Amino acid sequence: MTNHIALFEPLMPANTGNIARTCAGTNTELHLIEPLGFSTDDKYLKRAGLDYWDHVKITYHKNLVDFIESIPDLNQLYLVSKFAKYAYTEVDYSDTNKDHYFLFGKETTGLPEPFMRQYPDKCIRIPQNDDNIRALNLSNSAAIVIYEAVRQQGFPQLETTHLYDNDKLK
Q1: Taking the CB of residue 135, how many other CB atoms lie within 10 A of it?
Q2: Which member of 13, 113, 115, 153 lies 3.0 to 4.6 Å from 45 by CB, making a disulfide possible if both were Cys?
């Protein structure tokens, strides 16, 4: 089982770098759907991802169709959008025998509406106050969703570090 974060035509290198760091920390594969709004040699991208790039499996896709065709089971695809019916916490990601794909839209426009209409039951959202903001930051959104998935999966293969011995805290 592998979790996957896919970014549709990302524009901001810092967001992509931060998401790459989250992917490295959660053993999540990263998919970048072209065209990208930056070069992967971009210094901001590398600064945000620091030295984690070697620990992230990155797959590039020529377009959205190419990405969709790469997914073996579309039942495991989730489109993250503020316009979705279901909250991200209402979905069961606990099946560790299947890959889970989380597709995030472009920072400025999100996912294409005609595409989302093809998969209305695959759309999930992070609840937010729309009166105060248009959207949450892309890298924050990716972290929120992927950590819910790995939490439901029991944090597989993730190190748990304890500063103090729990027995001494009682």
Answers
A1: 15
A2: 13
Q: What backbone torsions phi and psi does residue 83 show, to the nearest 5 degrees?
A: -95, 10
Distance CA 117, CA 34 (A): 21
Query: Helix, strand or coil for residue 96?
Result: coil
CA distance 7 to 64: 10
Q: Which residues are annotated as a binding site?
A: 80, 105, 126
pLDDT digits 0-9 by tens, 126-159: 999 877 888 899 999 999 999 999 999 999 887 6
Q: What is the pTM of this model?
A: 0.89
> What is the side-by-side order of every strand in the sheet holding 77-80?
58-61, 29-33, 3-8, 100-104, 77-80, 123-125, 86-87
Annotated binding-site positions for S-adenosyl-L-methionine: 80, 105, 126
Cα dist. 144→54, 103, 169 in Å? 23, 13, 29
How many independent structural domains does the chain possess? Answer: 1
pLDDT tens digits for range 64-118: 999 999 999 999 999 999 889 999 999 999 999 999 999 999 999 999 999 999 9
Integer Cα distance of 135 and 12 in angstroms: 15
Domain that includes residue 19, residue range? 3-169
Give the CATH number of the domain where residue 141 resides: 3.40.1280.10
